[in-house]
Design goal:
It is built from three helices and two strands. It has helices at 10-13, 47-58, 73-84, and strands at 3-9, 23-29.
């Protein structure tokens, strides 16, 4: 599969204001990858979370998203992957696993 990459402003891509200008790579696949989640047009990104993750992505760093059950971690990660057209591989757990 061929992939094309485009740099886009995180603020514009995720429709948030009040964050630094951070370039984020968006992938374009020759054919849609089944591992790329669908965009939820009603999802509203938290600007602070977007800024922190976008900085890590721009630096090529890994990010751990932690928090209590039901706080929106999975939704956030799914939508970051969807908007950047990245394949998503999920490894989840909790304190008991």
């Amino acid at each position: 599969m061929k992939i094309r990459r485009t740099e886009v402003s995180a603020a514009k891509l995720f429709n948030v204001s009040g964050i630094k200008e951070i370039p984020v790579t968006v992938f374009e696949w020759e054919t849609k990858s089944p591992r790329v989640p669908d965009i939820d047009p009603d999802y509203e990104f938290d600007p602070k979370m977007v800024e922190e993750v976008a900085i890590a992505m721009a630096l090529g760093k890994h990010v751990d998203i932690v928090g209590p059950t039901g706080c929106g971690k999975s939704s956030f990660v799914n939508q970051i992957a969807a908007y950047t057209n990245r394949e998503l591989f999920v490894n989840s757990g909790n304190a008991e696993t």
